[in-house]
Specification:
The chain is mainly alpha-helical. The protein contains nine helices and two strands. A two-stranded antiparallel sheet has the order 1-2. Helix 8 packs across helix 9. It is elongated, with a radius of gyration of 21 Å. Residues 102-154 form the RNA polymerase sigma factor 70 region 4 type domain.
Length: 185
């Protein structure tokens, strides 16, 4: 295996993480990664030696994702699949941090794919605004707008989750007819 192929294979974990954030379905995400790697290996000459293949691979993956979304929209099928119950959480969280992380991931999955892709590229994958805008094929201003709106949408979703957690149902006591909503301690 040559140096270029090894460098591409080293990016697979990041590609899988990005694909799963886009598609929400493990099998579809793995298919997207497979398609991306296949296209990259067929067009290996397009990658400049000495540079990290990361930006190049993410651009390929994003273009494949957009093509896939267009096909799905033309056929009128649902573009995103809900997370399976087993994928949400295999066992109950023992720590508050695990619950908070799960809520953030769920909220990220709930926002639009364009905003999710922009946020994932910059906040999770660490690309600069300029790099992410180039990879997503949008002007830098559009990318910044998507990120700002995505963050605002995430904040709203997370605040709603916090409000729901802060209210619990207390069973009625003697002489009461219905449940009482009380703040959790």
């Amino acid at each position: 295996m040559d140096e270029k192929q090894r460098a591409i294979l080293d990016e697979i974990p990041r590609l899988r993480r990005y694909a799963r954030s886009l598609l929400r379905d493990r099998d579809s995400a793995d298919d997207l990664v497979q398609d991306c790697l296949e296209r990259a290996l067929l067009r290996l000459d397009n990658w400049q030696t000495g540079e990290s293949p990361r930006k190049w691979l993410f651009t390929i993956m994003h273009h494949l994702f957009i093509d896939q979304m267009r096909k799905v929209n033309r056929r009128g099928e649902a573009s995103m699949l809900p997370l399976e119950a087993g994928e949400v959480q295999a066992s109950p969280a023992d720590q508050l941090e695990n619950v908070a992380a799960r809520e953030i991931i769920d909220a990220l999955q709930a926002i639009s794919p364009d905003r999710r892709a922009a946020l994932t590229m910059v906040a999770i994958e660490g690309f600069s605004y300029a790099e992410a805008a180039e990879m997503l094929g949008v002007p830098a201003g559009a990318l910044m707008s998507r990120i700002a709106r995505g963050r605002e949408e995430l904040r709203g979703l997370l605040e709603d989750n916090a409000r729901r957690r802060a209210i619990r149902i207390v069973e009625p006591g003697p002489g009461r007819t219905g449940p009482i909503r009380a703040p959790m301690a």
